[in-house]
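Give me the fold.
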Amino acid sequence: MKILFIGGGNMSHAIISGLISNRHSIFVIDPVDLARKKILKLTKQKSCKSSIEVFNDLKDFKKKDVRPLWIILAIKPQQVGLLYREILKAKINWLSKSSFLSIVAGLSIKTLKKITQSKNIVRAMPNTPALIKMGVTGYYSTRNNSLEIQKQAIKILSQIGEVIKLPSEKMIDAVTAVSGSGPGYIFKFISAIEQAAVNSGLPKSFASKVVFFTVIGSIKLWEKSDNSSEELISTVASKGGTTQEALNYLESKDFNYIIDKAIAKAKTKSKTLSLEIDKQIQEHTKK
């Protein structure tokens, strides 16, 4: 397949590193020289069977006179307006004929259709464990996408981990708040336990090691168990014991409520990003 990546950051790098074991023609647009060089280094891997070419911008790529089958949008939400302006200036007529896979937070399918005029759009939200092929990506595909297009999108996304189809685009905001932002919450919790371990008298290096293996072991136990996470709590917390004492304190401080509200805040921010992107497009349309 001929695949164009607009944005050559970490997520694009992770996807490309999985794709190159098969024969593809991969093109990457990124204005940052360091990002382009990092992408090109992938061609030196023994498993690489794909060709990779990099470009500074869309105008530069247009000179290549290639129509990609897929265009992967992997830029920051704040850059969408600039991309739209670049599309208008470059006057690329084949955009509407390519399929789009967007992993841009807040970029709705409706807005992407306006920018590209393409009818074949898949919107997705991966998370940072994708960088080690352990991510989870929720995606939504428009109804007019053929089964073949959906299969190709899944093949691309599966390079970075598990792929889950969403029945509604509205769920993207929730996925963004839960799995997209989720690693940040988990690392925050881990960091808090590490600090508490140090405050309890454990040396920092020892505390980090203990917490690390506690987290890994707990995840593995959850993975291999038929019990829910709630049921697993009761296997650790004995009545009147130390674990129950700590859990009681968390509950007295509305721990579940705090987590619930934090995720709700993230979901609201995802919706706000959509409005901000639409505002960008309106401003660039006036220009």
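The radius of gyration is 22 Å.
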